[in-house]
Amino acid sequence: MPDHADLLGEVASGQRRPLARLLTRIENGDPSLRPMLPQLFAASRGAHLVGITGPPGSGKSSLVNALTAEWRRRGRRVGILAVDPSSPYTGGSIMGDRIRMMDHAADRDVFMRSMAARGELGGLAATTWIAAAALDAAGYDPVVVETVGAGQSEIEIARLAETTIVVEVPEMGDEVQAIKAGLLEVADVLVVNKGDRPGADRAARQLRAMLSTAGGRVARQPPPILVTTAIAGTGVAELVETVDAHRATARSPEMARQRAVNQLRRALASLAAQRAEESPAWSATVDAVADRDLDPVTAAERLLHGP
Amino acid sequence: MNDQTDAARTSPIRVLIAKPGLDGHDRGAKVLARGLRDEGFEVIYTGLRQTPEMIVDAAEQEDVDVIGMSILSGAHMALLPRVVELARERGLDDVLIAAGGIIPDADITALKTAGIDEIFGPGTSIGQIARYFREHARQASA
Predict the structure, then answer these.
(1) For labelling, which of A60, A63, A120, B67 has a CA lying 20 to 30 Å from the CA of A292?
(2) Under an 8 Å CB criterion, which residues of B touch A?
(3) Which CATH number characterizes residue B17's domain?
(4) Is A229 helix (H, G, I), strand (E, B) or coil?
């Protein structure tokens, strides 16, 4: 096994193959990486973590492609993680985000990686946040995470990203869609894409009307609403400026603390599950729950506290 | 049942499906991508009109175990060996490289000599291709 410092050094120096191999080990939950995680996170250079979510076919990948072109014009090196769903039956996946991102295929300052969600339901893979840290350590900034096509409540991205862009389309529906809870509420920036289609301005107006009467987080930090046409690049420079400007807001101590809470919760949950499964009492406890001799909550408590 | 449990615990094999060159027909590539998905592979589809450089760049970033290329245009003798050459330059020595589509029997030996691991002609079943990939792809890195 190569020395961890060597591997991180190769990644930090911009070598692509070591980074690609590291991402595979992260995705596979390779236990030999565990001792390296402190160094990996310490190697972070503070990249802006930008999330993009929205319904399937709303143009997320095309928008990432257009945003990347704009960021490259501004001299930024862009890291992209594009998550697509895994089959709940076979575990297989088809990842097609590269099709929309061909403009950057030959650009050595863009690193794009497809990730299968592998059974996670929140729109990301369980390891996406660690993969994002690896791209950060490799010097990419921003690091853009594109989620699985989202429905109404796949909002895991908002817990991970510093700036969450929610992409809608002109045909998003009526005012009731715009006042529903969930996806729209987590947007730091709202985008109506496919702006060349009829109804784009009306959709933007409906979203504005929704925000003007909203309470809670949306009232405290009303997200800007932009209209873009990703395939023509229209509105994309403005979107980049809006996203870049949000970085300062996202780094307020309050928001940084909230992200820390979310990361800790995620790490705790996966660590607790892993420890419990390694415990000698695991198998008997599973049997007891299956036979209804024990309820799952009490069983979990016992596994956490030990026998 | 045991098969399924085991399959869920090992890491899926990652396959890049690419269309090198200028032919615009990707029905076959899409059918294969879908079939491999159903066989439990993680398939990255590049889309049409890829240069050998784009294919190897994608394979490197995606750290795939297999590159599968579908080609119908007749340009296979020019494009496929170039992919092998670039892959070797980048150190992707352990990546399985296979091709399919319309490739005359007369060219198969030359392509294999150039480093293409296997060639699947018309009539090959998805099951055969999946089996070949499972048997020959590198073991998941631990």
Answers:
(1) A120
(2) 7-8, 11-12, 14, 33-34, 36-47, 50, 53-54, 57-58, 60-63, 90-92, 140-142
(3) 3.40.50.280
(4) strand
d(CA B108, CA B76) in angstroms, rounded, equals: 10
Residue B122 placed within a domain: yes
- Nearest-CA residue of chain B relative to A114? B62
The count of CB pairs under 8 A between chains A and B is 92
Q: What is the pLDDT of residues B75-107, one digit of tens each?
A: 888 899 999 999 999 999 999 999 998 888 889
The number of helix segments (H) and strand segments (E) in chain B equals 6, 5
pLDDT in tens, A78-119: 999 999 888 888 889 999 888 888 888 888 999 999 999 897
DSSP, collapsed to helix, strand or coil, labels residue A270 as: helix
Residue B90 lies in a domain: yes
Higher pLDDT, B142 or B65: B65
Residue B140 has pLDDT above 60, yes or no: no
All CATH 3.40.50.300 domain ranges in chain A, comma separated: 4-250
Residue A154, pLDDT above cutoff 80: no
Name the residue range of residue B118's domain.
11-136
Closest to B120 in 3D by CA, of B93, B97, B87:
B97
Q: CA nearest A24: which of B140, B119, B7, B16?
A: B140
How is domain A4-250 classified at the architecture level of CATH? 3-Layer(aba) Sandwich (3.40)
**Domain total in chain B:** 1
3-state secondary structure of B61: helix
Instruction: Give the nearest chain B residue to A112 (CA atoms).
Output: B61
B112 found inside a domain: yes
Q: Which residue of A has its CA nearest to B93?
A: A17
Judge if ipTM > 0.90. Answer: no
pLDDT band at A174 (very low <50, low <70, confident <90, very high): low
- Whether the per-residue pLDDT at B142 is higher than 70: the answer is no
- The pair of three-digit structure tokens given for residue B106, joined into one six-digit string: 């007369």
Residue B68 in any domain: the answer is yes
B-proximal residues of A, 31-50, CB under 8 Å: 32
